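To whoever picks this up:

The parser on our side crashed when reading a file containing two proteins. I've narrowed it down to the boundary between the first structure block and the second sequence. Both blocks are reproduced below exactly, byte for byte. First block:
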Amino acid sequence: MRIPVEHETILREALRAPSAHNAQPWRLRRCAGVRGAGGYELHYDHLDYLPHDPDDRDAYLAIGGFLETLDLAAQRHGHRSTVEPRFERTGSDLFVGVIRLRPALPGEPVDPLAGPAARRCTNRCRYDRSELPDLLRRELVAMGCVLVDPARMARLVARASELSWRDRRFVTDLDRWMSGDPAAPAGMTPAGLQLARYEWLALRVALRIGRLPGPVARLFAGRDVRLLATARAVSVLGATDLSTATLVDAGRRLLRCWVAITAAGFACHPISIAVDRPETAPLVADAAGVPVPVAVFRIGRPTRPAPESNRRPLADVLS
């Protein structure tokens, strides 16, 4: 049975939500029966598991980002969304909850971030040295972010990157989600990563090797380290713990941070490898003064626009 046209539009735009490695782990199922009208079960597909994400932090952040992206898309199209959380695990499937869409009531306010959310995308290019507006800084702090010293964070990212490139789990994980096909519906492509041809070829060689020695690992970590070290602002998003519900909520806050950055005319680029490593995550927590750091990203005014990364078609996500 075909879903309402408005729902199809909203769900398709929700698929623009960000996810680590562009894995897009969300799956939707139409609720059956009259009582299920306007309802969709949201599931996290553990078959799209990231081996270097043992706590599923990145996956649950992505689920939260999807929920917030969907809610803002619904508001752009005269609807509202609600979520009935479940968090029930069965085998490789996590039943996150039931999403319901309804028409907005007359006079119901629209979130000011609803419009800018349609323009949000990750930009991995160099940023200029424009100062962040005070209003944006206050908005980020209100959503749980701490602005940290870029040079200090660059040192932590350098250490985490070197450890990761020497870790077969990390390299295998990257290799699984890399694709030279520019039309690949999921995963990372050269265009999506904004890599030059020589950078992409070097990356493919590194992935074939499987584990890099120290000096080569430091070389491959260099690009993100340089981008961080020269950033005007670097932010750490904190959470209270790593429970599923807390991480999903953090994912919603993270998405709102990135949309607020877009609304201010700036861009962001997640570089969270320092919170992926047990050796460096406590140091990030100390630097930011947060109980649990869940994301690190640089902020600035981009020097060129970024291409949109590919997404799975709605037909592959909705059943």
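<<boundary where parser fails>>
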Amino acid sequence: MSAAAEVVLDAGNRLGEGVLWCERAQALYWTDIHAATLWRLRPADGAVRTWALPERLASLALCEADDWLLLALASRLAFFHLDSGELRTLHDIEPGLDTRANDGACDRQGRFVFGTLHEPRDGGDRRAVGGFYRLNPDLGLEALPLPKVAIANSIAFSPDGATMYFCDSPRKRIERCAYGDAIGAAETFVDLSGHAGEPDGSAVDAEGALWNAQWGAARVVRYLADGREDRVVRLPTRQPTRPAFGGRDLGTLYVTSAHDGMDAAARERDRRAGALFALAAGARGLPEPRFAGDPAAAPAR
């Protein structure tokens, strides 16, 4: 595979997101949020499968238990069994607020961290009313003491698990904090003001560098652990959404994308919008952490 980004699957996702690699299945999972659809691709044989869900799927996590995923649906967290389609709801998300779940990822300790996105009913501007949360292995949910956000994104963790990265996309800053049982104060990691686009999803490689997809800027950027820009990967679509490392050696960078918000003329100019891309990263990723909680402990509701 060349260093240039190639289309792996012309999925046509309106809002492809949440991509991650399952080593056990040697497969990619991701979501088309607005289509309420979970996708799976096995690159080795090109096999594709989709699952229709009862509401929009924002992000997801692998589970230690085989054949189960943890889903951050628009309004709730739930376990999902891939073979039977069983859905076990755990918690409602911000009931009473005009928000939905958005980006999420497991930390190195097997806990699922996610944030929310403001969806104003009047169609006005998004406001910073959403928050960040952590689902623990005992299935308890806690709010994290981080700044309120309009669009939570870029959730990722350093290789040692001691740093959390995150952002509020409209503010155009990727932030970080000391992370563990206690959460440190947020500080700016990368300031993208003055640049085109906004920070979207992120992945961390084995060297501790952060790869960030930049919505509206047609690029994924690698930042070293000290925040310096190290490499820019140009993509043939304006709205990349999230990168993930995959393949047997975790050396392939996969990137989801979207055509959300594009009119007919824009889609004609950007015919690859919504595709899944891949490229030789020149770096290796880390195995995707799995949620440590037991789906059998979830009540059926």
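After patching the parser it read the second block fine. Residues 6-287 form a domain with the Neuraminidase fold (CATH 2.120.10.30). The longest strand covers residues 99-106.
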